[in-house]
Amino acid sequence: MEKEEKKLKFLYTTNYVHKQLIENEELLRTGLYSWISVFDGDVKRFQDLEPSDYEKYDVIHVNMSAQDLHIPQTIRDHIGPNSKTKIVCNNDYTCELWGASFDAPLAWKHYYDAADMIFGTEPYQVGALEILLNRKVHLITHPCFVKRLKTLSVPKVQNQIAVMAHRYDMNIVTPSIAVSNIPGYKTVLIGYEQGADKRGYVTQCCYNTILSGTNYMDFCNQLMESKVVVDPFTLTSQSRTGWDCAAMGVPMVGSDRNHSARICFPKTSCDPFDIKKIRELTLKLLNDEAFRKEVIDYAKNAVEIVNYENSKANYLKALEEGSPKLT
Asked: Which residues face 270 on adjacent strands?
């Protein structure tokens, strides 16, 4: 009889807990909080922990956002260098946002020195961190509940083309040119945040319908209702939209700067400012059924790389290897 695998005691800790993701969305949304589900772990505010709590866990995971940078070293100071508790640090901030989000990069090294394992969520970020920290940085994208997404009931697909908005770059006007005036199709902008848009009156002219950001379940329905999704995100991100569309069988024209698009939609991704190419790919997905099926089938297979089982295996393999110095 095979020996039952010991359950790893996992804690994600932060100074700010997104309660909506836990209480309203039940940790279903693709991304950082999915690690809690993958390991059936806990999430707790760091200020609510006592130092005596640290070594109750096998792994303490910290996302290195600006308000949480101090956490790994604070924990290390209490548990010492030889504790069985492993500290994992990840950075999922796209490189373009580092200057606005953090202090001078050389100051980060002290914070990361406390980690047993370090990972990033897209290749360019990983490379930059390895040079900065002189340590092994693993490429591990945040998980996606692929199994659940593949079983969702598909709502009636509308004759609409959806464009994904991102508050970090607000690249929403030029993509509208690519999808405008296609006979028989309306356009919809999803994930829109009015407060981040300095020229909202221009945006209103560009789409038939504009939908603000919403809960994850409604967002999934918005994607599935669309004949084609265009995600023109200009930053070098993993981009969760690519994983979600792939798992739900929604064809996407993606940005070649996004890791999920490169993995799942290699034949329908291009530069996010290549408007002519975006339109060409959108039209091909609308009018060529064989190509559309090929794109969907490829994506549904490729997205398994970030399912819960594979994400857990990649995380544990990286944890075993650790993040030693490179030189």
From this structure: 255
Q: How confident is the model at residue 1 (pLDDT cuts 50, 70, 90)?
A: very low
How many CB atoms lie under 10 A from the CB of residue 34? Answer: 21
Cα–Cα distance measured from residue 68 to residue 62, given in angstroms and rounded to the nearest whole number = 7
Residue 2's pLDDT is what? 45
Query: In sequence order, what are the residues at sequence separation of 6 or more whose Cβ sits closer than 8 angstroms to the Cβ of residue 130?
Result: 136, 137, 326
Q: How many CB atoms lie within 10 A of CB 152?
A: 14
CB 244 within 8 A of CB 191: no
Instruction: Out of 85-94, 104-113, 145-154, 308-317, pick the least confident.
Output: 104-113
User: How many CB atoms within 10 Å of residue 114?
Assistant: 19
Are 270 and 253 spatial neighbours (Cβ–Cβ below 8 Å)? yes
Evaluate if residue 148 carries a pLDDT over 80.
Answer: yes
Give the mean model confidence (pLDDT) for residues 259-287.
98
In terms of pLDDT, which residue wins out, 9 or 25? Answer: 9
Please tell me which residue, 69 or 155, carries the higher pLDDT value: 69
- Say if residue 206's pLDDT is above 80: yes
Q: Backbone phi, then psi, for 70, in 5-degree steps?
A: -75, -15
| Cβ 210 vs Cβ 192: under 8 Å | yes
Structural domains in the chain plus CATH codes: 10-143+307-321 (3.40.50.2000), 146-305 (3.40.50.2000)
Task: Report, as an integer, the average pLDDT of 284-299.
Answer: 98
For residues 41-75, one letter each, b for 16 or more C-beta atoms within 10 angstroms of the residue's C-beta and e for the rest, the string is bebbebeebeeebbeebbbbbbbbbeebbebbeeb
Residue 240 confidence (pLDDT): 96
Residues with Cβ within 8 Å of 48's Cβ and at least 6 positions away in sequence, in order, are: none
Amino acid present at 41? G
Task: Say which amino acid occupies 17.
Answer: V
